[in-house]
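WARN retry 2 of 3 for item q-0093 after timeout on previous attempt; input resubmitted unchanged.
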Amino acid sequence: MADALSIRPARRCDAAEIAILVDLASHGFASWLWYGAVLEGCTDTAMEYGCMRMQAGGPEGWQNTLIAEWGGEIAGASVAYDVDESVHDAVAGHPVLEPLIELQRRIVGNRFIDSLGVYRRYRGKGIGRALVRREIERAGDLAVSLITESHNETALSLYRANGFAEVTRLEAVPLDENSKKHDWVLLTRNVT
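OK item q-0093 returned
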């Protein structure tokens, strides 16, 4: 079937697509953060730096990513990892990261869905739902948590429909004076 959905573990060669989908999932927040490497002279573009981060591995890299394909084309991705005690030693490289790190400190021992993105042309086909379900399966006996923006009703609806409930929220630090005011919402799906 040409429109069949398949989900597979990412490969290192998927790093560029993963970077794009992580940036898409974060509504440009990731590339805004990655642009710091451009200012420091480490790379020429934010997306190049994002690709290098995905290639390098680590918690947010290709090794912890699932790729969703629709009809043989990459349609979406999810990045998830276990949050361990090392999060207590994490230092925010920028004030905008402080509330996000603080929320992660509350979920030590949980599986954390860091990013989940689906290209616009593939939305409405159940790909996001399938990625969430697969991440829940991969978590095994662990609770699954994630953080999203308070104004992202589409994401909130998807996660609530999959058994996630709000745990708490913290006010987001604005990126600049034109940033939309919002909270970061921590949601958790407990083991049933």
